[in-house]
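Please go through this protein, sequence plus C-alpha cells, and consider how the sequence yields the C-alpha cells. Keep your notes short.
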Amino acid sequence: MTEKRPGEPIDERLERLEERLKAHQKAERARAERPRSSSTGYALAVRLGSEFIAAVLVGAGIGWSFDRFAGTAPFGMIVFLLLGFAAGVLNVLRAQGVVAEAGDQLRQRRDPGPGEGPGDGGPDQRAG
C-alpha cells in the first residue's frame, strides 16, 4: 500500500498507485494465459492424490523415526503427521496453480514494477 508522505500531493500518490495496479493486472493476465496441463481428469486426480498421500506418508515416517530415536512417542508422530498433511495440501494447491511458487514471489519482490523502487514507501522500506 502506498505510504502517505507529508507534503506529497495526492495526484502523485494516485499515479504511483495506478502504475502499480497496472503492473499487477499485467502479471495476473500473464498468469491466466499460461497453458494448463493437458492431463485428463483421471490422470490429474491420480497425480494430486499421490502427491498428497506421499507427503502424509513421508511425514508419518519421519515422525515414527524421530519417536524411535528420541523416545518421544507418540508426540513426534503426531507433529510430523500434521506437517505432512499441511505439506500435502500445499503441494495440491501448487499443482492446481492456486498458490504461487516461492521463487515466483521472490522474483516479484526483487523486480519492482514501474514507479516502484528504493524510497517509494513500499514493503521493503523499514520505518524508523
User: Anything to note?
Assistant: The longest helix spans residues 41-70.
